[in-house]
Amino acid sequence: MPNLRSLTIILLFILSLLIQASFAAPTIEMYYFYGADCPHCQELNPQLDEIEAAHPNLIIHRYEVYYNDTNYAIFDEFRDRYGIKVGGVPVFFFNDTYLAGDVTKEEIETEIARIEKGEKVETVKTEISLSFLIISGIVNGLINLCTFAVLILLLTSLLSLNERRKIFLIGISFISAVYVTYLFVGFGLINTFLFARAESYVRGVVIVIALVAGVVNVRDYFTGESTLAIPGFAKPKIKEMIEYASLPAAGILGVFATLVGLPCTVGVYLPILNALSAEPPIHALFYLMLYDLIYTLPLFGIIALVYFGTDPAALDEMREGKKRYIRLFGGVVMLLIGGLMLLGVV
Total domain count for the chain? Predict the structure, then answer.
């Protein structure tokens, strides 16, 4: 029965292939995102060729993201899917984990060996800590001496009106403008960080700014100076706008005071914006709106105090008396945040 014998041989051959396949290493797909001008990527590229040649079961999908917007959109999808806070390259995505930063050939081969053995890891979606967001917003609001000064001056000029309702409405107009302006500035910087496409560089700049601002504030505590304050050229403009004492003028004043007063809070604001740039856009916007609301709460407190009879002059005297200590507190916080970022904790 030659036909039966031939069929048996064919079946045994197929069975042997299936057995070999069952013991063969699984196919591994690795998604590699790199930049054409990235020095570390250029070093890795020939090493990846060696790894691919040594592992026939490995498929490397390569995506250049510096000059290819389509690939960068794919990179965004992977970051959202894996929930990671990395904006630069190189980045390697495997089926259940990723490698980013100064990745070495040995680290890649370790991951390949782990997957070949069937070992799995649980990729944890990282999100910005809500407690860190809230605490940062509170601190940033408390050290906001520049806007405090402008609001107190505005309220002082309104006392002659002797109309608490109008004082309240003009104060709310000012705070609303501060909130919206701070929100737009923050969202603009988040997008700047996002499209910089070089996280290590951007993160380094943010760390330096936080540390320098911290050092300057601590130094000002000992010298009595106000280095990070509203620039001198802006003060006459602020006084001129205060004299109008109307809702539109208060809104314009809020916008102007926020922009020229950014040096007061930049050392705390930039790190939180850098962290938010790694979040999905909707999450980032929600967190930013919450953060900026917390940031403006002390301004609402000032409005409430004046509305219920506190003399703005007394508040300004208190601000002047505590100014050095607030700067010291803010400086220490900025140094702490910069240090935590330097260590990779934040």
Answer: 2
Q: What is the domain range of residue 254?
A: 130-343
Query: Are residues 224 and 140 located together in one domain of the fold?
Result: yes
Residue 177 burial by Cβ neighbours in a 10 Å radius (0-12, 13-18, 19+): buried
User: pLDDT tens, 77-114?
Assistant: 888 777 776 667 889 988 778 888 778 889 898 888 88
- Check whether residue 77 and residue 151 sit in a common domain: no
Q: Is 33 left (phi over 0), alpha (psi -120 to 50) or beta?
A: beta
User: What Cα–Cα distance (Å) separates residue 338 from each residue in 139, 272, 304?
Assistant: 15, 11, 34
- Quick: pLDDT tens for 191-236: 887 666 445 567 778 888 888 988 999 998 888 888 888 887 888 8
pTM: 0.64
What CATH number does residue 39 fall under?
3.40.30.10
Does one domain contain both 169 and 34?
no
* Structure tokens belonging to residue 80: 């959202």
